[in-house]
Amino acid sequence: MSFPKGFFWGGALAANQVEGAWKEGGKGPSVADVATYKPKTDVKDYAAHMAVNDELIAAAMADPDDTYYPKRRGIDFYHHYKEDLALFAEMGFTMLRVSIAWTRIFPTGEETEPNEAGLQFYSDLFAEMHRLGIEPLVTLSHYEMPLALAVKYNGWYDRRVIDCFTRFCHACFERYKNDVKYWLTFNEVDSIIRHPFTTAGVIPSRFPEEKLLEVCYQALHHQLVASALVVKDCHEIIPGSKVGCMLTKLTTYARTCNPDDELATQAKNLENLFYADVHVWGEYPRLILKMFERKGICLHTEPGDDAILKAGCVDFVSCSYYMTMTESVDPNAERTPGNTVLGVKNPYLPASDWGWQIDPKGLRYSLIELYDRYRKPLMVVENGIGAKDTVEPDGSIHDPYRVDYFRQHISEMGKAIDEGVEMWGYTSWAPIDLISASTNQMSKRYGFIYVDQDDMGNGTLARSRKDSFYWYKKVIASNGEDLD
Ligand code: BG6
Fold it and tell me: What is the pTM of this model?
């Protein structure tokens, strides 16, 4: 297998799922800080888990008890980051993907000057990463915009948020120009349709149901314009920097070779890819503009937008990859959930306890598709399996299911490289247990490192190495050769 020399190996985190310390260092509340743990709701019911409205936000902000808001505590990475980075370094990481919490730098999003304590936290974090030989890959927006902008402006639906975001990014580029070379603008930019509040601060109940799709695409347009402005700004401030887009790679197969299934599948895949199309090509695909027309979606754009999109094309394409699904026109086809989507079940694939269908070959398929379409270097910046782990009486944690998942996916990624796909790196999700994005659970564990904390926040926060920790260390040491 041919992982290129210098291929980045590591893991990925998001500030809102790990940092905690939601009120420290001058941080303002973000949309993640009102995300609620709902123990009685089925883990496959994403709509219920991610439901939000003004009353729920007000109630969450007035609640003096943080127990049911796990992202406020994360895994206390804010205070444990040195210990965690040391463990990542022990595994041999050469890259760590982190995100910068916007609300640490601009607590409400509207300040004119950045918050020094917030900036300093990330300066210290990056300094420690460099000391350990770990290259930072930094996401500028990972499900954590200022709550104030969501409440006051309807989030990204309002064009004024573009200025707030570009100001935040500019401050980051100025401060970290000597620390960070690799950047991502929006995490899973396509997710706006699935959970508009988490991704874009849009509170769905404020809009008539039949208008919501248009509202989401309008907010997306503002994000795409902002992303292009930020790419340009980054290139100007940090010569040699590389900025990528980040897509949830939701590959869909036709459930049967019935041409109607194939057409429905093609439409799904085109919809998934178009977010990256705009980032790479600097323009909306004609087929998507036609789709907007057919659906009666009318976007407000400004005269300079086309030029902005063209001037801010990304240097590389990145994606998360967890699962695939199928599509069928048969209304009775059995459905299964996965990463906040509901798709038709694939009888050839096993699934995780959360219903996500496990498809290592789908990763190879997806990488080949992305590379053939964009001809840009790729990075897989999230890939992993959420599972329940058991701590043995002697403290060990045996997680062969996790090793199997990674072994098969890394092997398929190697095959994609052998077939000619250009790849820069792989950051697993997540190297350490953290709060799940969709269900706010701690017990949905992704890490090679176990964190002693339960769903309600009880525990010592002690970190311990699972079996998979030693396995991944070997993989990295052999540059992907030794997957046994
Ligand atoms: C991705 C997100 O969609 O999936 C991460 O970028 C998230 O933030 C990951 O944690 C896994 O999803 P979940 O809901 O299991 O945490």
Answer: 0.97
